[in-house]
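Limitations

Structures in this collection are predictions, not experimental determinations, and the ligand pose is part of the prediction. Treat each record accordingly. The example that follows, with copper (II) ion as the small molecule, is included so readers can see exactly what is and is not provided: the inputs are given verbatim, and the output is the predicted complex.
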Amino acid sequence: MRMTRRGFCAGLALLPLARPAVAQTMPLLTAQEAMVQLAPDTYPATPVWSYDGAVPGPVIRAAQGDRLERRLVNDLNVPTSIHWHGIRIDNAMDGVAGLTQDPVPPGHSFDYAFDLPDAGTYWYHAHTNSMEQVARGLSGALIVEETTPPDVDRDEVLMIDDWLIDPDTGRFADGFAAPMTLSHGGRIGNLVGVNGRYDYSLSARQNERLRLRLINSANARIFGLRLEGLRGWAVALDGMPLAEPGPVTDTLVLAPAQRIDLIVDVTAEEGAAAGLLFAAADDTWRALAEITVAGRSATASRDMPAPLPPNPRMEVGSPETARLRDMPLQGGAMRGLERARFRGRVTAWQELVRNGRFWALARQVGLGETPFATLSRGETARIRMTNDTIFPHAMHLHGMHFRTRNEDGALGPLRDTVLVMPNETTEIAFVAHNPGKWLLHCHMLGHAASGMTNWIMVS
Ligand SMILES: [Cu+2]
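Predicted complex:
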């Protein structure tokens, strides 16, 4: 790509000036260009933007209660920053360029250091021009391990992604900000894979019990997933343990940024098909991750797994007495909004379109000067999101997890990202325990970039 050797060296030369001598030991996470073979070998390799040269970036593992430290070194020729998705984090470390920090210029670095209060499956990704930077490869898994891990034979991270690649050149297709993409379902890839491989596979023995940590790091694709040759239970969503493991009997839906932890027993016999299937566009089920079954584990198949130990602060207070705030999801193709607030004034649809903006949250296009809501620390908040568009949206709250709340008051599992289907209403409730400025936005990253981003203030 455009990064030259000279640019690379110049970038490095700047770094010592930016580094305080006291923190020399902080581990590095370097955003850099690299060549990665994403497509099959008969196609050219793909120039990517990566963490440490790999797509996805390195799996970061830490223990619950640890403090995580990483120095982001920006060897790209664009500014960047890192969001630690799902961590109930110190606001200054949340990585949102333009809200919680300035983007890190090329050749500079930024020190991230924060506590990990919760165990679970999380991920990290660029949060500066994320619709392009994440699509080019800037994401990785962040695993926070329980003090007492569940009784499984293996723990596997499956980072599920799709890439839009020009098969002639191996390069990512341009048009990250194409109006057609932004105003419709977002950037959908032509190649689907796991852990950077279109043909990802792992081997296992019959009766082995695996923990599978599924992470959807795609820009916009909602994955429908099924198990084959496996008996499984969902034990956590978006990092947070379920009160009871839920048997997997049907299609699992994993929207962008969502995670699901499964515990699966390999039921397939040696040589039989096993693994994870995804629903392709032509309504067929295709292999996403294959499990090659070889041999048989001594253990016979086991009982239902025990629930994971709960994380602290999984309650959401008393939503029935909390103030309800309405957040309509608006805009997009075929359902354009007439007007919305943009850059401090009410702006007509035609002008929004001229500015590449197609979506609004609560009649606000992109970050406004005032937050959608100002919450007192400890207050229980209720937000009712009504999807007035014809597209699904994966709504993500930074800094805090929420529960969905049904009309009858029943609460759903604790999550950080919820899929709101067209013409549906989803109410969320959470305790505003974490002070700071927090984004609430669609995780179809093209939607977020073209208007579907708002924020809340907790003070
Ligand atoms: Cu959206």
